[in-house]
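W.,

You were right to be curious about this one. When I first looked at the sequence I had no strong expectations either way, so I just let the prediction run and decided to look at it fresh. Below is the sequence, 386 residues in total, followed by the output.
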Amino acid sequence: MGSSATVIGGGIGGLAAAIGLHRIGWHVTVVERAATLADAGAGISLAANGLRALDELGVGDAVRRAARGQYRGGTRTPDGSWLTRMDGAALERAVGTPIVGIRRATLHRLLREALPAETLLTGSEAGRVRRTGPGTVRVDCGERALDADLVVAADGIGSRVRGLLFPDHPGPVHSGSTVLRALTEDPVELPTDFELTWGRGAEFGHIALQDGRAEWHAVLGLPQGTRFADPLGELRRRFGDWHEPVPALLAATRPAAVLHHDIGELRTPLPSYTVGRIALLGDAAHAMTPYLGQGACQALEDAVALAAALATGPTVDTALARYDTERRPRSQRVARAARQAGRMGQQLSHPVAVALRNTAMRLTPSRAATRMILRHHRWVPPRLNG
C-alpha cells in the first residue's frame, strides 16, 4: 500500500481529501496555483451528509460552532406567498443534524487549519502528470517535480487533469443559467433562516449566517458569458418588486461584493473516476448544478470515501477501484437529480407550467417534501478511525 499523495487543487474538495489522507497516515502535498489561499466566496449550505463527512475528517464540531442552523424557511413566489415550508427540526430529528449555513471563507479556513502548514504548496501550477515507475506518478510544478503513490485531481469543473485522462469527453457545458451572489455588508433582520423564491426563469434565495449577515444568490436564465456593467443595479431592477427581504438584502450589499459566475455541469457522466494511480474528486469528477445544494457535500463524501478505501484496501489499485464503485453511481445520481430540480424550479418559465408546479407544491404534504430532501441527505460515511 502506498503512503504519499499529491492533491491538485486547494478548494473544499482538495483540502478535504488532503485531511482524509493525512488522518490515515499518508504524506500529502496540496498543489494550488493561487499564491494565497484567500478567504473568498460567499456562503454555503451543508446538509447532513456533508456534515457527517466533516465529522469523519475531524472538523465537524468546528464547522457547527461557526455555522447557523437552518430551521425556518421554505420556498415562496415573488409576491411572498408560500409554496412549501421547511421544517428544519423535523430534518434534524430524522438525520441528527440540521442543514447549516456558513461562510465559504470560514469553511475553507477551518479545513486549512486541520492540515500541517507544510502540506500546502501555493503559487504553484500543476503541469504534466505522468507515470514514472511502477506505482509512482509525477506532477511537474514549474522547476519542481512531485513523485507520489497517488494523485488526486480536485482541480474543479474545468479540470485539466480530467481532460488529459479523458480527451474524448465533451467536458463541462453551460446549464443555461448564471448566478450572482454576495454577502451583505452588515447584519440584516430576517424572519427566516433560509428561503428560495421562484419566479419565471429566475430564483432568489438567502441563508442567514451566524454573525447576523446573510448570503444571497440570484439565478437567471441567460446565455453563457452574459455580464452586466452594474450587476447590483441590474438585480435591483429585476427583483426590486419581489417580496421582502429580497430588496432589503440587495440594499444591504456593496456593489463590489457581487460575484458573477455562469453555472456549468458535467452533463455527460464520466466512465470512471480513476485512471491508474490518478483519482478525480469533486467538481473535476461530477460538477453539478446547485439546485440541491449538494456540490460541496458530494466532494466531502468523495474525500472520506477515498481515504477509507485507501486505509483498508490491500493495494492502492484495489482501493481506487472501490472508490470508483462507491462514488460514481451515487454522485452521478445526485447530479441528475440536481439537473431535474433546476428544470422544475428556476429554469421553468412558461406561465402555465409555473402555475401547475406551484399548485402541485402547495398540495404536497410537508412529510412528503421532507422525504424528498432526506433522499440525498441520508448517507452514512465509512469510518476513518475505528
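Here's what jumped out at me. The CA atoms of residues 183 and 215 lie 4 Å apart. And, maybe more interesting for your project: The longest strand covers residues 173-183.

Coffee later to discuss?

I.
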